[in-house]
């Protein structure tokens, strides 16, 4: 997509070699700014650290507050412009999809109500590019429950695909695209006008999970106002680096070990929440032997948070097919949410093997990002804006690699932005004069790694040396590390 001839990299490569001698490639524990990783506090407190779980709307005066249903992103109103000494050259964004129904695997054995999606269409069609007088109708899927079909799907019932971006999540996707246009066009005049030729300068990328395409379609209309065809770049199932889907045994093993009894912190959090599990199992009817629900709080979290984000009631225990008065109350839901937050911090930041787990399993995407930065610096790229539509497994791994100081579970629409700037004057000797600013939730990301620190104008040599050190230029180390033939 963005390839660079080797000769143009010579200057940068030597500068990178100089920086790599000093860059710190080690894992560093998250800092005291982390709100969610104190197990004692997570078990005892009420509420969820002031985080929002029940609406996509965050009031303007508190915008920036964690909102699971619709995470904060860069907007004109809050965006902090870089000093005028720096000129913006390239922007790459990665975001989690917006709010959706739960996954089928997260349904209770018998769900107390249907979840319908009759308020939208999932367009799915093929259209040949060689037009011999034939075109395609804009066909879309309508979920139906066959009147005659005696087989009932397990889990959720209703006309949605599970998962599917909800109508409200589609609205959030549109607003997200419109807001980023507000920043990168209206405010910075970096993206071209909507009526100009933006198509050669902008790339959109999705994963094999259809929900990312659903978000992309609304986002792109929000950003560019077009209802015309727009290509979405996608890698093949099974090897896609964005989701990620490629096989990485080392990464999988390290993540499994973090979430096992050999990690005493993990074991302790499960033991100390056994009563909470009993309560949730009783209401949901999930058997206590169902390992999917009991290895972590992930399933119950998804289950409850999706309901709350869509204004649906918390579920009650069904007795003889009817709602009883034993229900999940707010306090119980909050306790589940605090445990989910603790787990994400543990898996992606607190465990010392998290960096190796993430940099192997997400190393290819990181190397792709690095190659895009190099291409821009070498003057070999037409692309000025690349937007990746991805998942929490993608954004969590990236935050893990960047060693974010204050880890959270990246909620719906979570956004990480890489802005590449060129400094106009006063460059230090032997640097390319390029710098990177990284934003998470619209604010400058703070890393616990001392080489990265507050990621506000990090010399690109430092960031590239860090990425290269972990994953190799062009991902040269990833296959070896993933298969165990190079140690991590
Ligand atoms: C990385 O890939 C680019 C583009 O294919 C190539 O020009 C460059 O030489 C490669 N770098 C290394 C270190 O192999
Ligand atoms: C964790 O939270 C508990 C209870 O609020 C508090 O007493 C303790 O000091 C905290 N531990 C750390 C390391 O902050
Ligand atoms: C249980 O309660 C929910 C929410 O109030 C309601 O939508 C649903 O129809 C009820 N389910 C049954 C089986 O009565
Ligand atoms: C810049 O590079 C030259 C040649 O590699 C080297 O001699 C010099 O010490 C470098 N300067 C700095 C400040 O690193």
UniProtKB/TrEMBL annotation:
Residues 1-21 form the signal peptide. Gene3D superfamilies: Phosphoglycerate mutase-like. The keyword Oxidoreductase does not apply. One of its GO terms (molecular function) is phosphatase activity. This is Acid phosphatase. The lineage of its organism: Eukaryota, Fungi, Dikarya, Ascomycota, Pezizomycotina. It comes from Cylindrodendrum hubeiense. Transmembrane segments: none annotated. InterPro entries: His_PPase_superfam (IPR029033), Histidine_acid_phosphatase (IPR050645). Keywords: Signal. The keyword Signal applies.
């Amino acid at each position: 997509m963005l390839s660079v001839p080797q000769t143009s990299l010579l200057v940068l490569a030597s500068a990178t070699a100089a920086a790599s001698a000093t860059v710190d490639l080690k894992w560093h524990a998250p800092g005291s700014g982390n709100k969610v990783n104190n197990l004692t506090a997570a078990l005892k407190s009420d509420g969820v650290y002031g985080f929002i779980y029940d609406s996509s709307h965050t009031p303007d005066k508190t915008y920036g507050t964690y909102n699971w249903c619709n995470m904060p992103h860069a907007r004109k109103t809050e965006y902090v412009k870089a000093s005028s000494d720096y000129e913006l050259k390239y922007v790459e964004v990665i975001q989690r999809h917006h709010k959706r129904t739960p996954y089928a695997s997260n349904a209770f054995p018998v769900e107390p109500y249907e979840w319908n999606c009759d308020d939208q269409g999932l367009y799915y069609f093929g259209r040949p590019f060689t037009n011999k007088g034939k075109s395609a109708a804009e066909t879309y899927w309508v979920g139906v429950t066959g009147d005659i079909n005696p087989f009932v799907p397990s889990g959720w019932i209703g006309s949605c695909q599970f998962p599917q971006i909800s109508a409200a999540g589609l609205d959030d996707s549109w607003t997200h695209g419109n807001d980023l246009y507000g920043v990168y066009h209206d405010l910075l005049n970096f993206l071209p006008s909507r009526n100009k030729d933006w198509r050669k300068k902008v790339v959109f990328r999705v994963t094999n999970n259809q929900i990312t395409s659903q978000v992309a379609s609304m986002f792109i209309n929000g950003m560019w106002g077009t209802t015309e065809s727009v290509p979405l770049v996608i890698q093949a199932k099974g090897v896609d680096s964005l989701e990620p889907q490629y096989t990485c045994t080392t990464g999988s093993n390290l993540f499994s070990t973090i979430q096992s009894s050999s990690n005493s912190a993990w074991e302790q959090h499960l033991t100390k929440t056994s009563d909470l599990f009993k309560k949730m199992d009783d209401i949901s009817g999930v058997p206590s032997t169902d390992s999917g629900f009991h290895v972590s709080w992930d399933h119950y979290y998804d289950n409850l948070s999706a309901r709350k984000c869509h204004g649906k009631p918390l579920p009650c225990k069904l007795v003889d097919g009817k709602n009883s008065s034993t229900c999940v109350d707010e306090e119980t839901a909050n306790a589940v949410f605090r445990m989910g937050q603790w787990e994400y911090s543990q898996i992606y930041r607190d465990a010392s093997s998290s960096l190796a787990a993430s940099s192997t399993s997400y190393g290819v995407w990181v190397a792709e990002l690095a190659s895009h930065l190099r291409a821009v610096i070498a003057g070999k790229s037409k692309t000025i804006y690349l937007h990746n539509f991805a998942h929490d497994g993608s954004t969590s791994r990236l935050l893990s690699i960047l060693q974010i100081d204050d880890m959270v579970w990246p909620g719906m629409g979570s956004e990480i932005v890489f802005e590449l700037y060129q400094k106009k004057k006063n460059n230090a000797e032997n640097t390319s004069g390029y710098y990177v600013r990284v934003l998470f939730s619209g604010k400058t990301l703070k890393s616990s790694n001392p080489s990265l620190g507050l990621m506000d104008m990090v010399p690109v040599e430092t960031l590239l040396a860090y990425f290269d050190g972990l994953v190799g230029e062009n991902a040269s180390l990833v296959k070896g590390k993933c298969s165990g033939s190079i140690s991590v």
